[in-house]
From TrEMBL:
It comes from the Bacteria. Transmembrane segments: none annotated. InterPro entries: ATP-dep_Glu-Cys_Ligase-2, CP_ATPgrasp_2, UCP005522. PANTHER family: BLR5612 PROTEIN (PTHR34595), SLL1039 PROTEIN (PTHR34595:SF7). Pfam families: CP_ATPgrasp_2. This is Circularly permuted type 2 ATP-grasp protein. Residues 72-448 form the Circularly permuted ATP-grasp type domain.
Length: 472
């Protein structure tokens, strides 16, 4: 894996890649004060429509605007074809894996994955054993985090198939770009993303239960206004034209889910749930939850309602499960992986643990179930005391950690206070799987706004960019 940083815009100090040539010309003819004004207008727009996220555990107002960088990231059509093919392949394999572990468990019988890794994993839901889900789809909405390290080198960093978030920012980023920079957008032939919500509704409707009567009724289940992604929940429900509901809005009778409405009870066929497994049903999981619906799992197991994503899908985005995905692709699909995994060390393995502890100053160490940039150590950026403290945590529970080399994430031109400068980026494309698989052209580009930083998470000071996929 190369160590030099790949600049997605420039071939050298004087040359740029074809996709960025028009952007370079536009930037050269646009005064910095105009760019500053447009950035202020973008922030005003986001504040006015209420695009915020919550940072828990901090004092003051936890609601923040995610910084939006006004300079788009550009991917050529050929690059996107490679990415898209790899995403479809990967999601197919992840879905086959989930179906297998809650069914015949062939991957464990074949000795490819240890039984303990699956059956003793805290994300494995024994209540899903033998459940038949509509169309055999478990991963209806996937967000696959990727990084780029070279002209044709894309790596998958992690898979998100529980309740992946961020698609609303992808859509709003395009909206604000169209408002602020119609002249720049008109110079490119950019694939649209505004059909995502239509595609999402088609996907959810296509996996309705077999006994669904007439047009399926789809609802989005949210934990409520205090959830960090509540804006996205309300945005998606509004765009799809479906009801946004909380646990008390639903009830189960005779293993059928109903929604309370002003016209009386209405049957619900598909629930796009943004509530974690353990809070879905107090009768099946945590008895103290007030976010879920009593009896929901009975209705689900009876085949009278479908949940997207499936209960128990979280085992497929466990960071230690990630290490087996290339083998899953070969085992279930009989294919060679199109997208590479980042080399990863499982600290639960004794040899890997020793390797990680000896080189913790060179590696990124992550909690298996961590997210949002928390529960991780960037070894080269950490102090000696921080590395020692984190090493002690790893030694105490090695099975809860994995480690990866520090990647030389690619950079894109970014408008910062000092002007236009390269900043590291990643990419979260979104994949929809129902009767067919759809990949949204682009996805959410996250950017590390601090110079030299490799952490792109919004909770850690990162921002977002509009992502342009060019048509042929």
């Amino acid at each position: 894996m190369p160590g030099a940083v790949f600049d997605e815009m420039g071939l050298s100090d004087h040359e740029v890649r074809n996709a960025y040539a028009t952007l370079r010309d536009w930037l050269s003819e646009t005064p910095p004060e105009v760019l500053s004004l447009r950035r202020e207008e973008a922030e005003t727009f986001f504040r006015r429509i209420g695009i915020t996220f919550a940072v828990y555990g901090e004092g003051g107002d936890p609601e923040r605007i995610i910084p939006f960088d006004i300079i788009p990231r550009i991917l050529e059509a050929a690059e996107w074809r490679q990415i898209s093919a790899g995403l479809v392949q990967r999601v197919k394999a992840l879905n086959a894996f989930i179906a297998d572990i809650y069914g015949p468990q062939e991957i464990m019988r074949a000795g490819i994955m240890p039984s303990d890794h699956v059956l003793l994993n805290e994300t494995y839901r024994h209540v899903m054993q033998g459940v038949q889900v509509p169309a055999g789809v478990y991963t209806h909405i996937s967000g696959i985090d990727m990084v780029r390290v070279g002209p044709e080198e894309f790596y998958v960093l992690e898979d998100n198939v529980r309740t992946p978030s961020g698609v609303s920012y992808m859509l709003e980023n395009r909206e604000i770009t169209m408002r602020l920079f119609p002249d720049l957008l008109s110079r490119y032939n950019v694939a649209p993303v505004d059909h995502y919500c239509d595609d999402l509704l088609k996907t959810l409707s296509s996996v309705a239960p077999r006994n669904c009567e007439n047009e399926p009724t789809v609802a989005l289940l949210t934990p409520g206004i205090y959830n960090s992604a509540y804006y996205e929940h309300s945005f998606l429900a509004d765009q799809m034209g479906i009801e946004l509901v909380e646990g008390p809005d639903l009830y189960v009778k005779d293993d059928i889910v109903y929604m309370r409405t002003t016209q009386g009870p209405k049957r619900v066929d598909v629930i796009y749930r943004r509530v974690d497994d353990e809070y879905l049903d107090p009768l099946a999981f945590r008895p103290d939850t007030v976010l879920g619906v009593a009896g929901l799992m009975n209705a689900y197991r009876a085949g009278n309602v479908n949940l997207a994503n499936a209960v128990g899908a979280g085992i497929a985005d466990d960071k230690s499960t990630y290490t087996y995905v290339p083998q899953m692709i070969e085992f279930y699909l009989g294919e060679t992986p199109i997208l590479k995994n980042v080399p990863t060390y499982r600290c639960g393995d004794r040899d890997d643990l020793l390797y990680v502890l000896e080189r913790i100053d060179q590696l990124v160490v992550k909690e298996v179930h961590g997210s949002g940039g928390y529960g991780m150590l960037v070894g080269p950026k950490a102090t000696r005391a921080e590395r020692e403290a984190f090493a002690a945590r790893v030694k105490a529970a090695p099975e809860k950690y994995i480690a990866q080399p520090t990647l030389a994430l690619s950079t894109c031109p970014t408008f910062v206070d000092q002007g236009i400068a390269p900043r590291h980026v990643d990419l979260r494309p979104f994949v929809l799987a129902g009767e067919e698989i759809r990949v949204v052209p682009g996805g959410l580009t996250r950017v590390a706004l601090r110079e030299g930083s490799l952490v792109v998470n919004s909770s850690q000071g990162g921002g977002t960019k509009d992502t342009w996929v060019l048509k042929d």
